[in-house]
Amino acid sequence: MNNVFRQSLLSRVENLFDENEIAYTRDEEELVFVLSDPEGYDITIRAMSIIDDKWLMFYVLACNLSDVEPENHGRVLTGLLRMNLELTGAKVALTKADEFIVIGETNDTDLTFSELSGILLNIMEGSILVHKAMEMF
Fold this sequence. Notes:
Largest sheet: 6 strands, antiparallel
CATH architecture: 2-Layer Sandwich
Shape: elongated
Number of domains: 1
Order of helices and strands: HHEEEEHEEH
Strand order of the largest sheet: 1-2-3-4-6-5
Distance between the termini: 52 Å
Mean pLDDT: 88
Number of helices: 4
Low-confidence stretches: 1-6
Number of strands: 6
């Protein structure tokens, strides 16, 4: 086995961030970092290991269902579910706390910075779409 494989996926992301001078903090078992997108939004992204450290999940807390009037919940849920068809490399999910999150995942043990950048870009684009959709309600 090579050294990259022995290294946890989360540690691999930390190394990629360090090598590319991306600021982050470690919050318990997560990495937390803020990236700016081309439209000027600052997006807080979290990264965590899942499924026995075999997968890495990146996610953004986009909004909460409680921010929407109850009579619009069905339309919002339907719209965001359909949005999953439009997203590439990311998906929208609803947590137990009724928070909408945008998720990207990988199990690539030799993840490159280019691949990581692609995942993060997909999540950022998905987050912007969710925010724009929620502005309608």
